[in-house]
Every structure is written in C-alpha cells, then in structure tokens.
Amino acid sequence: MGHITRRTFSFAAAGAAFGSLALARASSAAPGAPTTEPAASPRRDQPSQADMRGVWIASVNNGDWPSRAGLSRDQAQAELRAAFDDAMRWNLNTVFLQVRPTADAFWSSPHEPWSAWLTGVQGTDPGWDPLAFAVEEAHGRGLELHAWFNPYRIANHDDPGRLVEDHPARRNPEWVVSYGGQLYYNPGIPAVRAFVQDAMMHAAENYDIDGVHWDDYFYPYPASGEEFDDADAFAEYGGDFSDVADWRRNNVDLLVSEMYQRIQDSRPGIAFGISPFGVWRNRGTDPLGSDTTSLQAYDELYADTRGWVTKGWMDYVVPQLYWNIGLPAADYAKLVPWWADVCAGSGVRLVLGEAMYKVGDPAQPDAWQDPAELSRHLTLAAGYEEVGGHVFFSQSGVAEDPLGAMSRVYEDHYR
C-alpha cells in the first residue's frame, strides 16, 4: 500500500498509475489432491463500527511502526501508543496493524520467526508481545484492531541465505519462488496454502483482535521481462485446468474462501477483510468491468476480487482507490459507484482505501497538491449508501497531515 509496501506503476496508454498498499487448514483435500472451485459462503454478523474510519500502520521497511528496527521495548511501545493517540485525535475508530509483513511475526508464533523489522535480527525474541500490547492499547482507547497479514511474501530480497536458518522457506525450498528481486511462497502448492493459513490463524485464535486483514499482494505485481516460475507446481497440482491463469485464480480463490470458513468456525466474532487493488477488470476487457484503463487485478494478480464479494467470502472489502477524481485512466468518481454496485445486496461491507501518501507529493498529479482532494472523496462517497467508511494509507502520513489534508477531512467529515 502506497510507497511503503507497494510497487509503483506509471500510466501508459494502456496502463494505470498505481502506487499501492499489503490465512485454517487448507481444503479438506490432502496436499497434492486436485483443487476444486469453492462454493459461496453464508453471511454472518458484520463488524461493529457503523462507519469505519481507519488507518493502516505498516511495519514492513519500518514504514510507520516501529520507526526503526531494534528499538527498546519502551521506545517501541511509546511509538505505538502515540500512533493510537493520533488516531484518536482525528476521531478514527479502527487501526490496521501489519503483524506479518514478510513471512514473519510480531507475536510469538510457533510457525514463523520474529520479524527483523521489530528486533533488527530475524528470529530474535524481543522479550515482549507486541500484538498483545497493541490489542490492549487499542481497545483501551475504544479502537478496533485488525491484524494485517501478507499471505505470500517472504522477503524484499531474493537471497534465501539471508533468512534465519530455521525459516520455513529454508526448510522447504521447493515452496519458494524468486521473482522481481523478492521471494514468495508459491500459491499453487497446497501445502503452502495450508501453512500460511495456519500461521495467520494462530494470531486469530490466540489474540483478541477484531479482524483479520489482507492487503493486495497475492500473486506478485508483474515484473518486466520475468515469468513467475510455477510450471512444476502447475504440472503437479493443476488437475483439470488447461490454462495456468485460471489455475492461479483458483489457488487464490481457495486461499480466500478457506480462510473465511476457518475464521467462521474458530472465531465467528471477528471480521475478515481484504484490501485489493482498486480495479478488478477494465470494461474494455470485460463488460462487467469498470470504466478504466488500468492494470487489472483479475488478470495480472490472479485475484478475482469481484467474485470474492459476490460469493460472500469476506465481511468487508477495502478497494484501494488511490486515484484522484477525474483521472482519465482510473477515476475515483467512476470507481466508487462501480464498487458500490458490486457490493449492493452482497452482505459485504464496502470501505474505501484512500491515498494519504500521495497528498503533496510533487510526483503526483495536480489534484494531489490540493488539500481538499481527500475531503472531496468522502463527500462523493457519502452519496452511496453501500459505502461504510474509509481507511487511509498510511499512519505516518495521517500524523504529518500534509497540506492540512487530514485536518480538512476532520473538519468536513469527522468532527
């Protein structure tokens, strides 16, 4: 999400600009069994907040918190308290804390090592429990805390030797794909899907979190001139699929639907939400798509985000609408009604992801030099009854209040 956790794309004639944001047993079939299309799920109660006003707190690359790796316990706790206090200052009610940024953990996990973004050295115990602390501090302020996980990213480098010796990726090198200078778990291997779900469910089952939250990283964003090397997995696990793209989408569908079901079975009181790339497909590709000319989550990330909503595989969706009103290739004013129409009648709550990180950035279009742009987003979205709130990326930008844009949002909408 934004410059901290996402790749940046530039608009071309046929492309879209995007600077963006980034779980239960696998299916009952044994690893290696043919995959099948998951069925739609029944609805359950929705999250408690009537109007979600949220902020993402990124830990990867020490983007928001902690400000650097290796802080003392007191320093790290003071920073997180300050971040939560800042959320209260703007009258926000929900924080999305990244606790599994790179196949690691901000809690004592039996599955994965302590995060290097926390301690400075992967696998080093910090001597305290950041997730337990975060839950207590958030709830003490009346804030909901949604634990933000990245399912498949292992590392922001491509050297397995830099991972701690007992890292699952080193113990199972056949699970790992190097792509675009980074390491990923291969979504096409059933054992991988089971493992990442187990790793994230451990936090859901052992902490009083209010939600399980994923970002937009499923299969990685396209890297120029590279192919994601999953041919061997396709040959072994592709079953009846003749097209690798359909198989990849089914792999992600299974991850989403299985995780939703596991949360229902184990922790039915918490919400499951995903923050996908803001464009499912362009209308020029699919008549059901949006009036955009952008990268397409369905085709490039193998993420059928529209399908997940219509099949009811989540409680809320936070599409990253990180574009200004009037942008020809991806107009915020056109994407809001498109997502509202998709969510209408689905039982899935629509919350909109907002690009605070673009405000005042000289590399961004003129609209982002206007302190009122984000406030206009909220005004426009208020005209759609399906919209149930907004989440801002990210906490450091909200705290800095560039151009007074967050102050304007507060005065116009949150006071």
Describe the structure.
With 415 residues, the protein is of the alpha/beta class. It has one domain: Glycosidases (TIM Barrel, Alpha-Beta Barrel), CATH 3.20.20.80. The protein is 33% helix and 13% strand. The chain contains 14 helices and 13 strands. The protein has helices at 2-5, 73-89, 116-119, 130-140, 168-171, 190-206, 231-237, 244-266, 297-301, 305-310, 332-343, 373-381, 395-400, 405-414, and strands at residues 8-9, 18-19, 52-57, 94-100, 144-149, 153-155, 176-179, 182-185, 211-214, 271-274, 316-317, 349-354, 387-392. The strands form three sheets. An eight-stranded parallel barrel has the order 3-4-5-9-10-11-12-13, surrounded by six helices. Strands 6-8-7 form a three-stranded antiparallel sheet, with no helix packed on it. A two-stranded antiparallel ribbon has the order 1-2. Helix 2 runs parallel beside helix 4, helix 6 packs parallel to helix 8 and helix 12 packs parallel to helix 14. The model is unreliable at 2-49 (pLDDT under 50).
Say how many strands there are: 13
Low-confidence stretches: 2-49
- Structural class, by secondary structure, is alpha/beta
What is the CATH first-level class name? Alpha Beta
Helix and strand succession?
Answer: HEEEHEHHEEHEEHEHHEHHEHEHEHH
Using the 3D structure, state the CATH architecture: Alpha-Beta Barrel
Mean pLDDT, all residues: 90
Major sheet size, sense and barrel closure: 8 strands, parallel, barrel
Strand order of the largest sheet: 3-4-5-9-10-11-12-13
Strand content: 5-15%
**Quaternary state, please?**
single chain
In which range does the helix fraction lie? 25-40%
